[in-house]
Structures are given as C-alpha cells and as structure tokens.
Amino acid sequence: MNYGIHLKVSGDYALFSRPEMKVERVSYDVMTPSAARGILEAIYWKPQIRWIIDEIHVLNPIRFTNIRRNEIASKVSVKGAAGINAAMANPEIRPTMDVAENRQQRASLLLKDVAYLIKAHVLVLDLRLEKDDAPSPENEAVGKHLDMFKRRARKGQAFHQPYFGCREFPVRFELIENEADLPAPDASLLGEKDLGFMLHDIEFDQERSTKKVRSTTPHFFRASMSDGIIRIPELPFPAKA
C-alpha cells in the first residue's frame, strides 16, 4: 500500500511572506512546508490526521516580480456593540468600514509562474474515522484517509480554494498517481543551493476543552535545495489531535 501522495501544484503568482519583512511583503524563494500543508488541508482534512510534508520539488525556475496593491490598513472589530460577534448574534447589526479612509498601498516582491511537486504522507492522530467509530488498525485508517484525499483530488474538489500564500493567488492542482509520471525540475535548478532559514511550521498550544489558543511558537529550519528537491526535516514538536 502507498502511504504517501504526490500532488503537483502550480499558479501564476505566489507570495510566501518572510516574517522578518514587516512593512513590505517579500516572498521566500520557494514554497514553505506550512504553505504546502495548507494546500493539502484545503483539499482534505479531518481533526484525526495531520499532513506531514516530506519533500518539495521546485519545478519551474525561481523568478520574482514586483507589484503594488491597494490594501485595507485595519480590520472590522470583532468585539463591541458593532463588532463581528454582535452581528452574528443580531443580523440587524451590519459591521461597516470606510474603505477610502483605510486604504493603503503596499509593495510586494512575489514569485512568478510557480510549479511544485508536494510529496507528503498522513499521520493518523486518532484511529477512529469519525468521532463515534470504533478504532481501526493503523494501516487501515491511513489507507482510508489517503483514499478519500485521492478521490477528492482526482475530481478537483476542495473545502476551499487552495492558494499560494495569499488568497489572490489560487492554486491549480493535479494528483500524480504513478511515479513514472513525476515531473522533473527545470534544468536551471540542478546543483546545490542554500535557501537560508525558512519557516517550518507553527506550534499551537491550545486548551483541550475550549480549543482556545494560549500561545503560538514558530519553528524554522535551514533549507537547502539539491537538484530542485528540498527535503523537509521532521516536525520539531509533537503533533496532537
């Protein structure tokens, strides 16, 4: 049984924001593991599993471009009499924002014409397929989740449109089922390249009963690319259901 998946993803633009660039957005050279996990979760996810990214294959040459975008400088309040929470309780309340007063223009350095191959496997955190199901053997549970992912990916189904870092940059995806059909990286990517420190993933500390997030801890790793392939180290924190 194949315990992993290969998913080819591509798009016209991508912006995987570097956290050290606070004012103007600047993208990493390639897709981060957390962004790859987000794409897989957009296609198929359950609380019982976690996607583990094994490799990211960079297929197209790394090219950057500059754009300027109009953005909103602030958000509608969540709390308060005119906030989102109040509007959800009372439909007559309409949260509003004056876009003209909150508009700002920001520059972004983003990636152009991107394509990647995501190699990943599923880690089962709870052997029950549904909350009330009896536990299954681990191999069987893994197989069921992978089968459901593959069915959805073949049909192009997703819980929400996957995107490359920003929702303006949608992802096209294609499931690669035979290793003989795996696309090869562009010839310009051959050789070794140090990509510097890159965001690996974010560790959330939550209260089990309320799921309220107590703290978030970003984890980084030293990324390097060999012949277009970035091998992702193991998660530096335990995955929890």
UniProtKB/TrEMBL annotation:
InterPro entries: CRISPR-assoc_prot_Cas5 (IPR021124), CRISPR-assoc_prot_Cas5_N (IPR013422), CRISPR-assoc_prot_Cas5d (IPR010155). The gene is cas5c. Its EC number is 3.1.-.-. It holds the Pfam family Cas_Cas5d. Belongs to the CRISPR-associated protein Cas5 family. Subtype I-C/Dvulg subfamily. The keyword Zinc does not apply. Keywords: Antiviral defense, Endonuclease, Hydrolase, Nuclease, RNA-binding. This is pre-crRNA processing endonuclease. CRISPR (clustered regularly interspaced short palindromic repeat) is an adaptive immune system that provides protection against mobile genetic elements (viruses, transposable elements and conjugative plasmids). CRISPR clusters contain spacers, sequences complementary to antecedent mobile elements, and target invading nucleic acids. CRISPR clusters are transcribed and processed into CRISPR RNA (crRNA).
